[in-house]
UniProtKB/TrEMBL annotation:
One of its GO terms (biological process) is positive regulation of mitotic recombination. The gene is Ercc2. It comes from the Eukaryota. The keyword Ligase does not apply. GO terms for molecular function: damaged DNA binding; DNA helicase activity. It comes from Pluvianellus socialis. Transmembrane segments: none annotated. Keywords: ATP-binding, Helicase, Hydrolase, Nucleotide-binding. One of its GO terms (cellular component) is nucleus. Signal peptide: none annotated. This is ERCC2 helicase.
């Protein structure tokens, strides 16, 4: 939907200008999994204006054709929380190692 796409595009633009890390919260694991799956598929449409002047492409040039998530990965490492406590602890440790948090 447009809301999911817009949230992904917002995170993409923030990832280009925010130093260090960004944390995105979701209401449930299922909702997060659905959104992340759709971001693998969704691409920023041509001609959609950018919010930030520091966005890596202009509204007049075509965006990279990867999905939203792949484009975010060009700017930031992505760590996705799972329901497994040990995996989540490892992801948080890695996030802190790369300067994403305290």
């Amino acid at each position: 939907t447009a809301v999911i796409r817009n949230y992904g595009n917002l995170l993409l633009e923030l990832s280009a200008v925010v130093p260090d890390g960004i944390v995105a919260f979701f209401t449930s694991y299922q909702y997060m999994e659905n959104i992340v799956a759709s971001w693998y598929e969704q691409v920023r449409p041509q001609g959609v204006p950018r919010v930030s002047p520091n966005c890596p492409w202009s509204p007049l040039t075509p965006p990279p054709r990867q999905g939203i998530l792949e484009n975010i990965q060009r700017n930031k490492l992505i760590f996705i929380e799972t329901q497994d406590g040990a995996e989540t602890s490892m992801a948080l440790e890695k996030y802190q190692e790369v300067g994403g948090g305290p």
